[in-house]
């Protein structure tokens, strides 16, 4: 296997394994668990789940793979901090969004060839990309895997 | 820049940025903060810090870069769950270990050329490595970055 193909596969495998960890965690947490705070006066599980979906939704745009699927999640889960009075979808609805989104992302990611992962993402200009070629699509996966792991480490406290 | 060199740099940059996040967090948490539980009946900050140092210590062996520097941390922070009665170094000593270790790891990592990151790590046999070349040194960095982010997400709750 060619080196670029190998390393791109390693990065994608870590992303997919992280999604699976989150899936497993969601499967053992009840809706009631997810309505609790991860620690006193900290975010609730429902907020973390909605936040992850909103952040992953924005990846579609950054990776130039189409439009956001859940733009209404921006306000309650990215713009605003967690608050019980903020209108937001139910845990059950968010679970459905999460599963559907994982399938959509995996499908879109499969369509990209190794070299295409090294193309620039949409939030960087042509000029800046020449200066720093690490601002590519693969780096979006690398940074979002970090972000996902950070919040899995928090959500696991609801067990 | 050649592709392998570029992607290896991206992976290493994410590792270094994660270490820096942890550094920053440690700089704003007091020793007293680190002696608190991250959530009721969950691990204390001191345990997470010791655990990270113990896990990163084992990377030296896995990456074939020498011997562990802090083998005495295995028992209290890897083998045993967190317990206030377990003998362990003070927060202050662990802070020193953490800083020294970051320097040592960064120095050792700088010595490896991009292609060398794709060589097998020490926990995989030659035979298994042929079957799965992703079991290389770079993957140790990728998985340990995930692990670090997971626990940073927890330690941040002590703020």
UniProtKB/TrEMBL annotation, chains A, B:
Where does the DinB-like domain start and stop, copy by copy? Answer: 23-155
Species lineage: Bacteria, Pseudomonadati, Bacteroidota, Sphingobacteriia, Sphingobacteriales
Output the InterPro entries linked to this UniProt entry. Answer: DinB-like, DinB/YfiT-like
Descriptive protein name: DinB-like domain-containing protein
Chain coiled-coil ranges: none
